[in-house]
Amino acid sequence: MEGEIDHRSTRRDFTHGELHQRDLDSNPFQQLATWLAAATSAGNFDATAMVLATADASGRPDARYVLLKHFDEAGLCWYTDQRSQKGQELTANPYAALVFYWPENDRQVRVNGAVEPLDDAAAESYFQQRPSRSRYSAAASIQSQVIASRADLEARVLALQQRYPDDNVPRNPAWGGYRLIPERFEFWQGRRDRLHDRFVYRRPENHPSEWTIERLMP
């Protein structure tokens, strides 16, 4: 590539809404559920997509999109191959950050906290809910490992289909789930002139079952 690619003049204003503390639910999980439903209603077909940011043992960060699969007040859950890069990083450093962005509503949600693996029963339950082809793909892949060609990857899937022809391919024990246990939520609403609305929920150390809400400057 020759020369600089300049996007300093690329911008748009945010005009979809505003956010006041009186609009917020006292429970950040309920607030997340409300905004997630609104994003889906606004036409976002990947509303559950979230950036998962992790760091290795030396603190070097990495990030990728994963899909939120379920959540309650215990935490936010997703599934993956635990042999993957993110799985290895979470083993070495079991803390992470999640980010949702819904441009249809000019909204962003950030969530930070400790991460724990889900038990085998949860992983098995979700694995069996997946479409047949997705189960074969997950069983055939050692996620993030080098493979020589696409043909080799497809051959691994075909071998499993021949070995387990009745859609009963077993879940590899390394394929499982994770739960992020939130310590902090931030809800961001884009506003005109970059004067955005930002509110953070935190758990006070002396009252860990409660949440405080504070406005942040943009």
UniProtKB/TrEMBL annotation:
Classification via InterPro entries: Pyridox_Oxase, Pyridox_Oxase_CS, Pyridox_Oxase_N, Pyridoxamine_oxidase_dimer_C, Split_barrel_FMN-bd
The pathway it acts in is: Cofactor metabolism; pyridoxal 5'-phosphate salvage; pyridoxal 5'-phosphate from pyridoxamine 5'-phosphate: step 1/1; Cofactor metabolism; pyridoxal 5'-phosphate salvage; pyridoxal 5'-phosphate from pyridoxine 5'-phosphate: step 1/1
Name the residues that span the membrane: none
Question: Required cofactors, per record?
Answer: FMN
Cofactor notes: Binds 1 FMN per subunit.
Query: What are the recorded Gene Ontology BP terms?
Result: pyridoxine biosynthetic process
Q: Name one GO molecular function term.
A: FMN binding
Q: Where is the Pyridoxamine 5'-phosphate oxidase N-terminal domain?
A: 47-161
Q: Where does FMN bind?
A: R64, Y65, V66, L67, L68, K69, Y79, T80, K86, Q108, Q143, S144, W188, R198
Reactions the enzyme catalyzes: pyridoxamine 5'-phosphate + O2 + H2O = pyridoxal 5'-phosphate + H2O2 + NH4(+); pyridoxine 5'-phosphate + O2 = pyridoxal 5'-phosphate + H2O2
The reply on keyword Lipid metabolism is: no
Q: Which family is this protein grouped under?
A: Belongs to the pyridoxamine 5'-phosphate oxidase family.
What is known about what this protein does? Catalyzes the oxidation of either pyridoxine 5'-phosphate (PNP) or pyridoxamine 5'-phosphate (PMP) into pyridoxal 5'-phosphate (PLP).
Q: How does it assemble?
A: Homodimer.
Name of protein = Pyridoxine/pyridoxamine 5'-phosphate oxidase
Gene it is expressed from: pdxH
